[in-house]
Design a protein that fits this description.
There is one protein chain. With 137 residues, the protein is an alpha+beta fold. A hairpin with a 2-residue loop joins β2 and β3.
């Protein structure tokens, strides 16, 4: 039944991202370690694993300085907020990519300005181990 439904036309989701000055800054409740966890525990629960010496599987398409200027000035470093694995971090105005935290959700490809963050499959069998995810009590 579902195989006969037409697929929606793809849209450029990044075009719907509002500049930071038009948005209210969100304040999140602290982690309760029952339903919400800090980043280290969340990554551990996902079973994420990437080989230490493999090339970064997330690249900036085009001019890196242009991208970081736009991300900083217009969107107030939105990668730090939309990425659930905290892959993106700004240090001294420069975007650092911690690909070893990547959960392979591809949000970066969808939400980055003009889709300038390009995600590819990492080498080997790296990534989250979704099949074996479990909670620890």
């Amino acid at each position: 039944l579902f195989s006969y439904l037409p697929l929606p036309k793809p849209r450029n989701s990044w075009k719907f991202t509002k500049p930071a000055k038009l948005c209210k800054k969100l304040k999140y409740a602290p982690h309760d370690d029952i339903t919400t966890f800090d980043i280290d525990k969340s990554l551990a629960l996902s079973g994420v694993h990437h080989e230490y010496d493999q090339p970064c599987h997330i690249q900036i398409k085009g001019e890196e300085q242009y991208y970081t200027d736009v991300a900083n000035q217009i969107f107030d470093k939105h990668e730090e907020r939309f990425c659930p694995g905290k892959v993106y971090e700004y240090t001294d105005g420069k975007l650092n990519i911690k690909a070893q935290n990547c959960l392979h959700c591809k949000t970066c490809t969808i939400k980055s300005h003009k889709e300038m963050l390009h995600w590819t499959c990492p080498e080997g069998n790296g990534g989250p181990n979704y099949a074996n995810m479990q909670t620890t009590n």
